[in-house]
Amino acid sequence: MEDIANIGGPSLSQTEPVKCEECGCEVFVTAYLMRKVSRLLIGAKQDGMMPIDTFACAKCGHVNKIFLPPELAKENEEKKDKSSGNNNLIL
Ligand SMILES: [Zn+2]
User: Fold this and answer.
1) 6 versus 45: which is more confidently predicted?
2) How far apart are CA 70 and CA 81, in angstroms?
3) Is this model's pTM higher than 0.85 or not?
4) CA distances to 2, 54, 86 from 73, in Å
5) 16-42 pLDDT, tens per residue?
6) Do the domain assignments include residue 63?
7) Fewest CB atoms within 10 Å of the CB: 3, 15, 21, 60?
8) Is 54's pLDDT higher than 60?
C-alpha cells in the first residue's frame, strides 16, 4: 500500500480514523473476499475463484461496508434483511 503522506497528499491531521462498524476497533488487516465464477463464464472445466482485496477488523473480523465493492455491499444488505439480526452470515 502506498503511504500517501509521503507523496504530497493530505497530512495525517487532515484525516479521520476509520472504525469497525461492529466493535469500533481502528486496526484492520488485509483480507480477501473469494468469489466463485461459473466455469461457463470463463470457459474452463472447473469453476474459478476470484479473490478481491479488502480489509477486515483485526479484532472481530468484520468487513466495513466502505471496504466492499458497491455490488457486494448491496448483496450483503439484502442478505441481512432476510436473516434479520444474524450478523454471522455476513460474508
Ligand atoms: Zn470489529
Assistant:
1) 45
2) 17
3) no
4) 25, 12, 16
5) 999 999 999 999 999 999 999 999 999
6) yes
7) 3
8) yes
Amino acid letter for position 30: T
Rounded CA-CA distance 79/86 in Å is 10
Domain range for 64 is 24-82
- Ligand 1 geometric centre to CA of 32 (Å): 16
Grid cell in block for residue 46? 472447473
- Selected residue with higher pLDDT from 79 and 65: 65
Surface-to-core class of residue 29, CB atoms within 10 Å of its CB (0-12 exposed, 13-18 middle, 19+ buried): exposed
In a domain, 39, yes or no: yes
| Whether the Cβ atoms of residue 69 and residue 50 lie closer than 8 Å to each other | no
Which residues are found with C-beta within 5 Å of the ion, ligand 1?
20, 22-23, 25, 57, 59-60, 62
Report the separation in Å between the CA atom of 62 and the middle of ligand 1, taken as the mean of its atom positions: 5
